[in-house]
Write a structure and sequence with these properties.
By secondary structure, the chain is mainly alpha-helical. The chain has helices at residues 12-22, 29-53, 60-71, 79-86, 90-102, 124-140, 149-165; strands at 76-78, 106-110, 118-122.
Length: 170
């Protein structure tokens, strides 16, 4: 992965640490530095992912919906369940499903088990695009994160513990 955007001679977050400490906020400095770093890394990773997905007409949100549907046993899930599993607001799921449906990658149908809900069903075209996108993401992003695998495992573990502490899951 290559860095994007202008490069600084010094880490801007390290500069922020100095400023935070100089303001008398030393007790909050480690948390500020961690939160700011995670937010910046999220931006950088999203840029890498979108660089791969954009030419395919996908955003990461739409890709996640396609993958969730492709991993489901039947290729279909209630729209509300998609939001729960992806941990996003229902309006975001509706928007993503609308766009995927407009592109012929997903179709909606009535849920035969619950007349009040709607199923999002992946189409064959959606399955093929999800597989192609996954191949490219695996090749160009996921296998090129510039850290040793042991560090990736450690980082995942730390972030999982942090997500659990915030009540993201039990």
């Amino acid at each position: 992965m290559e860095p994007t955007g202008p490069r600084s001679r010094r880490d801007p977050i390290e500069l922020a640490i100095e400023s935070w400490t100089a303001q008398g906020w030393a007790d909050a400095t480690p948390g500020m530095a961690m939160v700011t770093s995670v937010m910046r890394v999220q931006q950088l990773l999203l840029q890498q992912v979108e660089r791969v997905l954009r030419p395919m007409g996908l955003t990461f949100a739409r890709y996640e919906v396609l993958m969730l549907l492709s991993f489901s046993r039947t290729g279909a899930l209630p729209v509300g369940k998609i939001g729960e599993r992806l941990q996003v607001h229902p309006a975001s799921v509706t928007n993503a499903v609308d766009r995927l449906e407009d592109d012929g990658l997903v179709r909606r149908s009535a849920n035969p088990q619950d007349g009040r809900s709607v199923l999002a069903c992946i189409t064959e075209r959606g399955r093929h695009l999800a597989a192609d996108a996954s191949d490219e993401l695996n090749r160009d992003v996921f296998t090129k994160v510039p850290l040793p695998v042991a560090d990736l495992d450690d980082l995942f573990s730390i972030l999982r513990d942090l997500r659990r502490a915030f009540g993201d899951f039990t």
